[in-house]
Amino acid sequence: MSFAGALLSATMANASNDTIARTLQEYEVVSERVRKEVTSTAPLFNLTDERMKTMGVTDISDALHRLPGINIRDYGGAGGMKTVSVRGFGTTHTGVIYDGIVLSDCQSGKIDLSRYSLDNVGSLSLIVGDNNDIFIPAKASASAASIIISTLSVPGPQDSLWHLTGQMRFGSFGTYNPYFKVSKTLTPKFSFSAIGEFTHGKNNYPFTLSNGILVTRERRNNSMMNSGHAEINTRWRPTPASTLDAKVYYYDNARQLPGPVILYNPICNEKLRDRNAFGQLTYKNLSLRKFSFQGLAKFNWDASHYQDKDGKYPGGVWDESYYQREAYVSGSALYMPTDRLAFNYSADYVYNNLTTNQLNIVSPWRHSVLQSLTGKFQNSWLIATARLLYSIFDNGAREGVSAQDKNKLSPSVSVSVQPFRDYLLFFRASYKNIFRMPTFNESYYYHMGSTSLNPENTDQYNFGVTWQRNRSGWLNSLVLTGDLYYNWVRDKIVAVPTNMFIWQMTNIDKVRAFGADLTASATFKITSRQNIVFAGNYSWQRVQPRTSPTDPEYNKQVAYTPIHSGAASISWENPWVDLVVHTTGQSDRYGTSSNLPMTRIDGYMELGVAAMHSFRLRRNTFDVRVDLTNLLDTQYEIVADYPMPGRAWKLTLTYKFN
Q1: For 147-167, what is each residue's pLDDT tens digit?
Q2: pLDDT tens digits, one per residue of 65-76
Q3: Whether 610 contacts 579, CB under 8 Å
Q4: H-helix or E-strand containing 315?
């Protein structure tokens, strides 16, 4: 079939279905559409909502496990914090983009992905470096790697029907999760959607506690959580070639913190409440033949309140409250002088500040200006992109000394070559230099922060090969990707003790990472109504401190980084009950970069199964899904002393009216 093989997207990598796009060039291939993962100039891995269903994905953490090169810090249970790092860069080097705009946490630099459920997610992608899309804001290219979350779009202009979804999910350990969504095109120019969900979990799952020869069965306590999330999305189409999208988002999670498992001391009275609200606007205009424009605006408010009841505190209670605010605007212009050549200029401005009830924090603020200039050339066998990102940071504080002001020019380049016209075989290579500013915690936190810190500076190199084969026989499709990479981090920020009680952040560390990522997916046709679908990934990575040969950590594996990790799923699609078997796992890790035997965390392999079926009656659809996770009741930890749940079940009932 014919397809636009040289599509230059006018939006982010996972734009909604009715977004207008432009083509640089069209050519004919007798096959199905080539996947983005195959033609990308830099590593790109994409999971659509349909692919996640086929793979038996259960939640955001499980989805991330299905992407290569990702390490997850998961503190266990529904609502337990989940942060990610990619290819050894660390969590703060991974950007998270939610419907086209980068999420931020100026305090810690870590985005907690447990805040985002999969029920309204249309696709989840991982980009390492810069890929083919150039019509993006400057801030979207300011990270070593990015996770892109695209929610399900509002109805198109020709769809005048009401769309209703009601869902109820029950699970082990006192978990229930109602969800609803309503969407409609009210006029040919205006559509909307609204969602709401609530999650309650006792999270009192059992685990095994070993103390020498004594092995006991315990339960997590002080781990209940109540979480709510609401979102309203609208789309206005003033002209056929322009759109204005608006989003209002609110999240509230009140949870108890079980803390690490400490022998014979199960008492914990810590609580944490996180709240986040933001509103954002995205305007796109593609009406001119050679020019396209995009404007973004966002205001974000984030609050966290920590409380610990203990007699050792004056008054018996310790309270910490932190409030973040961000104002963000961006403008981008895309110019395409020919069908093979395109240029994009983007300019972003960001203002962040942090206030707290702690007397030793100086209420810092930061102005950031980011500008990027990107060029792209594409013909029938070559895609090449190059970008320069110029970043300016102006730091200040209401009281005391502020962090240093910084500016930096960061280049990147990537290329993909198709040497044989008749084969979907591509070779790719990419380089990216990027840096990250110290977070407010690293610069100002009491007894730890240092205002003299330099940014962490990174270089990443990637060489890969991708191949896709489509045919009409029993093997419907086969997609293979393989990448080798080398990363180098300078001026890494680490905490160093100055005495027994005071630590300080300083730039002393260098880290080297090299490894390989492999992915494979295939669809086998059994009959006209039955398919076997396989998907798998494997990562090998060595991430090593390289500061000085005299350091005890030199050439050891960085903490919480497995050398081997991977995931696989195989599903049977049929007219009766779709079945999926899936597994994820990783090798041993260490809780410290010195790799002491006492800090070793055992590797694990977790097995799960899912069964699902849909009933359709006119415009009504009923879905039933049953999941069994950790089927073999494997006892394991991802973060030291935070045991993960054992065998568990989920029952999901969904009603859709379309």
Answers
A1: 999 998 899 888 889 999 999
A2: 899 989 887 777
A3: yes
A4: none
Sign of the CA dihedral running 304, 438, 513, 598: negative
Tokens found for residue 539: 């990562």
Q: Nearest CA to 142 among 464, 415, 437, 416?
A: 437
How does residue 371 score in pLDDT terms, banded at 50, 70 and 90? very high
pLDDT for res 497: 56
Q: Residue 382 forms beta bridges with which residues?
A: 417
**CA pair distance 242, 19, nearest whole angstrom:** 9
Residue with tokens 């994409």: 46
Q: Is 407 helix (H, G, I), strand (E, B) or coil?
A: strand
Residues 6+ apart with CB under 8 A from 200: 174, 175, 176, 177, 224, 225, 226, 227
- The torsion angles phi and psi of 264, rounded to 5 degrees, stand at 60, 20
Residue type, 426: F
The pLDDT of residue 600: 92
The secondary element (H helix, E strand) that includes residue 353 is strand 341-356
Cβ atoms 297, 258 nearer than 8 A: no
Mean pLDDT (the chain) is 88
Contact predicate 149/97, CB 8 Å: yes
Beta-bridged to residue 200, according to DSSP, are 176, 226
Give the bridge partners for 564, in sequence order: 540
Query: Is the separation of the CB atoms in 453 and 440 below 8 Å?
Result: no
Please answer whether residues 462 and 484 qualify as being in contact, where contact means their C-beta atoms are separated by less than 8 angstroms: yes
Exposed e or buried b per residue across 54-91, where buried means at least 16 C-beta atoms within 10 angstroms of its C-beta? bbbbbbbbbbbbbbbbbbbbbbbbbbbbbbbbbbbbbb
* Residue 558 to residue 542: CA distance in whole angstroms: 8
Quick one: pLDDT band at residue 257, thresholds 50, 70, 90? confident
pLDDT tens for 523-532 read 999 998 999 9
Please identify which residue in the block is written with the tokens 């993962």: 37
Distance between CA 586 and CA 603 in Å, rounded? 5
Tell me phi and psi for residue 116, to 5 degrees.
-115, 115
Q: Which of 130, 134, 43, 93 is nearest to 373 (CA)?
A: 134
Whether 9 and 17 have beta carbons less than 8 Å apart is answered as no
Strand extents, DSSP E, 145-290? 145-151, 163-171, 175-187, 190-201, 206-211, 214-219, 225-239, 242-257, 270-285
Distance CA 84, CA 105 (A): 14
C-alpha torsion angle, residues 90, 92, 98, 102 (rounded to 10): -140
Residue type for position 189: K
- Side-chain-side CA neighbours of 244 within 13 Å: the count stands at 7
* Contact criterion met (CB below 8 Å) for 208 and 220: no
